[in-house]
Structure formats: C-alpha cells, structure tokens
C-alpha cells in the first residue's frame, strides 16, 4: 500500500512501491485576513472543486514547460482522483519567485518605494520554505554560504525560473490574462535540477480586467 510521507496545506504526498510519488490535490485554500491569497500560509477552509482545478492547471503547465525542453518531475495525471504521478526528487526547500508586477508581499516590504502594479523586470527572489518563520527571504550569497545551493545551481534556478515564467506569461497573455507573479519549486532527480511541486492558481497570481482569478476561474480561462 502507498505510504503517506507528507501532508501539506494543499496536497498530500504518498510514496509508491516503485519509488514514484503520488500527489493528491486538496480543496483547501490559503489566505490572509480572511481573504483568499495564494501567497499566504494560513488555510482558510475549502472550496469544492479547487483541488481538481489545481491538478488540471499543473498538468497543463508542466506539459507546456516540458514541450519547451524544461525538465520537471511530472509523469502522469489522474483527474478522476485529483492526483498526479511524479518522479521523486530531493527538494531544495526553497521557493523561487518571479515577479512581473509589484504585488502582495513585495508591496508589504517595499511599499514606501513602489506602488502596486508597477512592472518589474522579471525580478527573481528566493525564500526558504519555513512556515514558522514566514518563509523568509534569503540572499544568493547566503544560499551559497549556507551550502544550500552552489553558485552554479543559483544561476541555473534563476535562469530556469525566468524561462518558465516567460513561457507561462506568454501563454496566459494569449488568453487575455496577465501574470503578476509566480513561485516555483525545484529539486534534484538523478543529479539533474528539475521543477517540482505544482504550477497552479496556488503558485501564481493572474489578473483579468483588474481582478485576481481564483484557481477555478483561472482553470476555466486556461482550459476553455
């Protein structure tokens, strides 16, 4: 029987007998101050169908990136079971954020210097996956000093993040949607750095006509 090895805010992870992982997407939503926000760590409750929307979006975007030659851990989706089969990776326990416009935590940190919605030049930030400390920012020098990443890995993560963001941004723009920011996670499979976790409404902010779309709304627009 598959063994649960992790239970997160939006997914449960099971280890298969063949060493692959099965990700089960939940209907839980995260937010801050009672409002849904994919960049927050607090679980507000559940929205029926949200897990399936996240699975469908992740499947769509992983395939988009793989077609463009970017490596991911994605293998196969099971929409009827809200689950996805992926390669097992050694996670770097980092979130790599690419910002196309100033929004969310960027405004909370730097609001005295920038207004919401101001374009940013595909600005890349690294944060530690550490809920207890609020997923703190970490500099590139600190990543290498703490031996979390090598300088070459830092360069590769930044380059891959910008390439993936550009592909996703272009795809969304073709559907009349505006990507504000996105966070990606990376891991290592057989010595190769790959994009892992999910790519969905839980990991990006997308705007349409001045409104930030929910996972279900984003799924409907992307897959219609």
- Which CATH architecture of the largest domain would you pick? 2-Layer Sandwich
**Total domains, how many?**
2
Q: Tell me about the largest β-sheet.
A: 7 strands, antiparallel
Rough shape? globular
CATH topology tier name of the largest domain: D-amino Acid Aminotransferase, Chain A, domain 1
Quick one: CATH superfamily of the largest domain? ATP-grasp fold, B domain
SS field, number of helical segments = 5
Question: What is the class of the largest domain in the CATH system?
Answer: Alpha Beta
Structure notes:
By secondary structure, the chain is α+β, with helices and mostly antiparallel strands. It has two domains: 3-86, Phosphorylase Kinase, domain 1; 90-223, 2-Layer Sandwich (D-amino Acid Aminotransferase, Chain A, domain 1). 28% of the residues lie in helices and 36% in strands. The protein is built from five helices and 15 strands. It has helices spanning 50-67, 105-110, 140-145, 151-173, 215-223; strands spanning 3-7, 11-15, 21-25, 28-32, 35-36, 42-46, 74-78, 83-86, 90-91, 94-101, 119-128, 178-189, 192-196, 204-208, 211-212. Strands 9, 10, 11, 12, 13, 14 and 15 form a seven-stranded antiparallel β-sheet that branches. The chain has a five-stranded antiparallel β-sheet with strand order 1-2-3-8-7. Strand 14 (204-208) and strand 15 form a beta hairpin.
């Amino acid at each position: 029987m598959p063994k649960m090895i992790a239970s997160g805010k939006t997914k449960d992870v099971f280890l298969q007998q063949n060493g692959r992982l099965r990700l089960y997407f939940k209907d839980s939503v995260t937010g801050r101050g009672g409002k849904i926000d994919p960049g927050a760590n607090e679980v507000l409750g559940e929205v029926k169908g949200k897990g399936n929307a996240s699975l469908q979006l992740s499947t769509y975007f992983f395939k988009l990136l793989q077609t463009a030659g970017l490596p991911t851990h994605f293998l196969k989706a099971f929409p009827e079971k809200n689950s996805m089969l992926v390669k097992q990776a050694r996670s770097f326990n980092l979130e790599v954020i690419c910002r196309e416009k100033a929004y969310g935590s960027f405004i909370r940190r730097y609001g005295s210097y920038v207004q919401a919605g101001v374009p940013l030049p595909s600005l890349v930030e690294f944060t530690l996956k550490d809920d207890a400390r609020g997923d703190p920012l970490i500099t590139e020098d600190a990543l290498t000093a703490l031996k979390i990443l090598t300088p070459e890995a830092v360069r590769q993560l930044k380059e891959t993040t910008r390439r993936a963001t550009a592909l996703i941004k272009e795809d969304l723009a073709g559907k009349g949607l505006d990507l504000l920011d996105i966070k990606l996670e990376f891991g290592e499979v057989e010595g190769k750095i790959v994009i892992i976790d999910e790519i969905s409404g839980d990991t990006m902010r997308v705007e349409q006509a001045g409104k930030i779309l929910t996972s279900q709304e984003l799924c409907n627009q992307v897959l219609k």
